[in-house]
Amino acid sequence: MHTPDTLRYARSHEWVSAPEDGIVTVGISDFAQDQLGDVVFVELPDVGRKVAAGDALAVVESVKTASDIYAPLAGEVVEVNASLEEAPEAINEAPYEGGWLFKLRVDDTAAWDELLDATAYEAVAETD
Amino acid sequence: MPYVPHSDDDVRRALEAIGVDSLEALFADLPEALRDPPIELPEALDEVALLGRVRALAARDQTSGPDFLGGGMRRHFIPTVTPHLAFQSEFVTAYTPYQPEVSQGVLQATFEYQSMMCELTGLPASNASMYDGASSVAEAALLAVRQTRRERVLVSRGVHPETIEVLQTYLWPLGIELETIELERLTTPVPEVGGDVACLIVQTPSFVGTLEPMAALTEAAHAAGALMVATVDPLSLAVLASPGEYGADIAVGDGQTIGNPVAFGGPSFGFMVVSEPLLRQLPGRLVGQTTDVDGRRAFVLTLQAREQHIRRSKAKSNICSNHQLTALMATINLAALGPEGLREMAEGSVRRAHQLADALRAAGGEVLHAERFFNEFVLRLEREPHTLRRQLSERGVRAGVSVPDAFGLGHAVVLSATELTSDADIEALLVALRELGVLEGESQPEVYS
Amino acid sequence: MSAATPAPRGVDAADSFRDDSFPLIFERSSPGRRAARPPLVPGASMAALLGDEHLRSEAPRLPEVAELDLVRHYTTLAHRQFSIDGNVYPLGSCTMKYNPKLHEAVAGYFQDVHPYQDEASAQGVLTVLAELQQDLATITGMDAVSLQPAAGAHGELAGILMIRAYHEARGEGEQRRVVICPDGAHGTNPATASMAGYDVVEVPTGPDGEVDLAAFEEALNPQVAAVMLTNPNTLGIFETRILAISEAAHAVGAQLYYDGANLNAIVGLARPGDMGFDVVHLNLHKTFTTPHGGGGPGTGPVGVKAHLAPYLPTPLLVQREDGSVGIEGPRPTAIGRLRSFYGNVGNLVRAWAYIRTLGLEGLRRVAMMAVLNANYLRVRMREAGYTIAFDRVNMHEFVAQPPEGIRTLDLAKMLLDYGVHPMTVYFPLVVREAMMVEPTETESLETLDAYAAVLGQVLRDAQADPEAARAAPHSTPVRRLDETGAARRPVLRYQPPSG
User: Fold this and answer.
1) Mutation site, A35, A36, A38, interface C, largest C CB count within 10 A
2) pLDDT band at C16 (very low <50, low <70, confident <90, very high)
3) In this predicted model, what pLDDT tens digit does every residue of B38-95 receive, in sequence order?
4) Which of A39, A42, A43, A61 to mutate to test the interface with B (most CBs of B within 10 A)?
5) Sites in chain A below the pLDDT cut of 70
6) C269 to B39, B268, B420, C230, C287: CA distances (angstroms)
7) A40 to chain C: which residues are within 8 Å by CB?
């Protein structure tokens, strides 16, 4: 599994980029996309939605499963990756780049540091 | 025992292989208190005795003679070839097509069904069918609530009264408000649609036969950001403007009229066809086209992640099955009739209904209908509708679906005619109504316009 | 579709319908052709009668085919369809038993009765329905039955709504917010609870394959409205602690719901009513052998104990003073109506014919032979190299697993090349690579021996050549499909070539 160490991770398999101007990008990990199989559809949140950490706000569907995506941090949705509507396969092909899901303006940037780092996440994923 | 192949030797051989000494041992997990329950059933009948009993019972059902019953189901022409083909044992005894490589028969037929329903309704995405018209309307309301995240539903009084009852059943547990729009001159007035309304539901032709002003109603719904749900008789779409043409978002209804017998109310099937943006919100099964590894066109159940077996408590609906076999009847029937045959049926039904209305009016009957009606209309009475229906039945005529009090029409029945109605049938009804004194009233005929 | 051994592609007798471009009915269409002619009714134009503004601008593009084209199309399509009448079809939890032809004849007698005709003129069909209602009540041990629901899931909705209405009538509607389902439950159970406005709590399966009683009791509290159970459960195991479960649920005021999907195991031998269930739904297309029809129509009557009878969906069948059967409409306590008219009557009369043909002894024999067959096949499957999840005497079905490294999906597809149908795969979710097998009572031991032999063969083949396994099936009308492509860019209807 590919787990970039510049990112932080949630136990529910989302990755989170380092805050820039209070904004983070969120996607699902390479491990998660591999477990799901071919992604066929993504249900994205409305821009402007305010979420608490742990709120389900998106759904990633493969042919035979559907997984909720949870907000790894509290904040407000400021942008979603609309290109996934036409090309959901980006999540499989480039989970950390073209396959990102949404951007959050986080309430507390310090909370990012408390998420799992790459090593800790890999340990979680291996026992999952 | 019928249908069970095991001989005593078979049972012994199986028990030995399993390693238990009796059939009882296989049921050792059942607590003692549960065993040998007092079940009381009649003695078993052999085939001859059963069919004898069935014939005796069926003789108590009136199934021939002049028939003017409508109200959601009507007896229409079904060519012999339709049930012959639909009831081939491969179609009858197959399960849901979960193994597509050996289920192309059901899957392709369903794809054809979806395509035909899209053609009739003028909308691009049909599911593989549902239980019936009424529950499909309820599912359409739930879809609109999901899509708009609003919690109020407007429904026209002209929607079949049983459908409104079903809407109430489906909406109350979710706390969704249902408001009825009363008719004016048998027609749905264009209502005020508030910003909290998820959808407007209108049936055309309505329960009382009216061709509703669907374009204006759709415009009012859309202006408020609500969805327009058109509940329609698919047979009528051979001639009437399609929901797609007037901009409805969801077309729903019951498919009985295009290829299934009335069967005392079921099974027929419900259909739901939606606009492109609502595709992912569709409840129920869907069949899609794809290719196999050799590049051949093939069909498969698709977008299953919406459904209960995957999404469980987050599914779009709890619906699991569709009404495949009855939908197949309609598919084959539509292919047998083609656009011309379907149009002839619809037109025949309209002409006979207008002939009947004219004849009743000429004979002094109090006929009520809006300016434009399809193949059903209202006859007002002095007596209780159920009484009239019984009296007609005793004279060999089946007619007289009650109009509920909520319509404010007093004692009234819906009458219907189809392409199967004959001049003699109409005459028989007139004779019976004259005998019963229904056509002697002094009141003037009335047409709303 | 019933070839006993796989034939190499290209020489199978079925090759004529294995055309690479098997057409759609639309593609057989030619303008001006048609198969059926309704009686012609000449008269005024539609524009005159209905008004131009109500008419459609162009005719629907339905197929135009001659009758023989129609017959050949749907006959060859039928040949591209696996069925019970073709070969063994042991889907777990689906009860794919033989559908007697006699029932089709019986149903034909009642298809022209209109739902709105005077009840005195429909006493034949009403008598059948009233008798069936009574039969189902005594078979399940319930006090009252409604035949209205159109399918099992529809029956579930009726049942949970009745439970909700009951709690509301007792002033506990606000308090009771939760429905408990085992993690092995059918997906419809949690989906139904959501539709009825409830939150779902799942309880785990214990090491013996039964509901984990400790975890269950921990989940119980006065917020629980209902507990939904299948017994035997989806692992084919009878919940031996059912009486304790029932007592514990009732002690906190919860109602116990019986999903009747697996009644075939115990029909005539034990009753959900005696186990303490307050509501049951039955799947007449399973236990009572109304045809599955390629996906429906099903039929899902509900039965209740007396305390829930006021909430049954309406209309209800009633016995009139003169001995006739009547229909009565809405009443204030009821949950209301779930569909139009009275139910899937065409199926109800088939189920009635089945019960009349079998009688109580016949029904008990059904359960015994269904359980005998399932245990026999379990043993044969173990001998063929499969692992049995929770290997103990099972009821009407069991769950097996392939050895480590072999995929259930591949084995299922390999079975198709032998002309038999796979079991239910990847359900229940609590067993890895699950193969859920329910042979039913109507299969002979010889058929089960042959099925087990094929299961052994495909396992050996898959172990010998995993790559080949992934390429199966070879001899079916089409081979493995691109399901991902179908879902990513859905094509859901035929559109005529433009121009």
Assistant:
1) A38
2) very low
3) 999 999 999 999 999 999 999 999 999 999 999 999 999 999 999 999 999 999 999 9
4) A61
5) none
6) 9, 34, 50, 16, 13
7) 484, 487-488
What would be the CATH architecture of the domain defined by B81-331?
A: 3-Layer(aba) Sandwich (3.40)
A115: closest CA among A83, A71, A49, A62?
Answer: A71
Interface residues on A facing B, Cβ-Cβ cutoff 8 A: 40-41, 43, 61-66, 68
Please name which of B254, B323, B302 lies closest in space to residue B91, comparing C-alpha atoms: B323
Q: Nearest Cβ partner of A89 from C426, C483, C488?
A: C488
B169-212 confidence digits (pLDDT tens): 999 999 999 999 999 999 999 999 999 999 999 999 999 999 99
CA distance C304 to C369: 28
Nearest to B308 by CA among B321, B299, B296: B321
What are the structural domains of chain A? 8-112 (2.40.50.100)
Q: Do the Cβ atoms of C237 and C210 come closer than 8 Å?
A: yes
Give C487's contacts in chain A (Cβ within 8 Å).
Answer: 40-41, 61, 63
Q: Are C473 and C479 in contact (CB under 8 A)?
A: yes
Least confident of B146-160, B346-360, C318-332: C318-332
CA dihedral sign, ordered B286, B288, B294, B296: positive
- The closest of C118, C408, C453 to B400, measured between CA atoms, is C118
- C484/A88 CB distance under 8 A: no
Q: Which residues of A touch B311 (CB under 8 A)?
A: 66
Coil, helix or strand at residue C317: strand
- Quote the percentage of chain C above a pLDDT of 70: 96
Out of B338-352, B421-435, C156-170, C319-333, which region has the weakest mean confidence (pLDDT)? C319-333
Q: pLDDT for C381-418, tens place per residue?
A: 999 999 999 999 999 999 999 999 999 999 999 999 99
How far apart (Å, rounded) are the C-alpha atoms in residues C124 and C147? 16
Give the pLDDT confidence of B214-263 residue by residue, as tens digits: 999 999 999 999 999 999 999 999 999 999 999 999 999 999 999 999 99
Q: What residue type is C397 in one-letter code?
A: E
Q: Show which subunits contact C, needing at least 3 CB pairs below 8 angstroms.
A: A, B
**Quick check: C150 and C298 in contact, CB under 8 A?**
yes
- Could C268 and B39 be called an inter-chain contact, meaning their C-beta atoms sit closer than 8 Å? yes
CA distance linking residue C178 with residue C175, whole number of Å: 9
Binary contact (B308, C153; C-beta < 8 A): yes
Type of residue at B417: A
Give the start-end residues of each E strand in C247-305.
Answer: 255-260, 279-282, 302-304
Q: Which CATH architecture has domain B339-440?
A: Alpha-Beta Complex (3.90)
Interface-testing mutation among B146, B304, B308, B316, with chain A (most A C-beta atoms within 10 A): B304
The domain ranges of chain B are 81-331, 339-440
Distance from CA of B151 to the nearest CA of C (A): 14
Cα–Cα distance, C159 to C193 (Å, whole number) = 10
CA atoms within 13 A on the CB side of C356: 25
CB contacts of B337 in chain C (<8 Å) are 34-36, 38, 62
Contacts of A among chains (3+ CB pairs under 8 A): B, C
Give the DSSP letter of residue C229: E
Q: What domains lie within chain C, and their CATH numbers?
A: 23-51+58-79 (no CATH), 102-357 (3.40.640.10), 364-485 (3.90.1150.10)
Q: What is the pLDDT of residue C330?
A: 84
How far is the C-alpha of B273 from the C-alpha of C492, rounded, in Å? 11
Confidence of residue B447 (pLDDT cuts 50, 70, 90): low
Average pLDDT over residues C362-369: 98
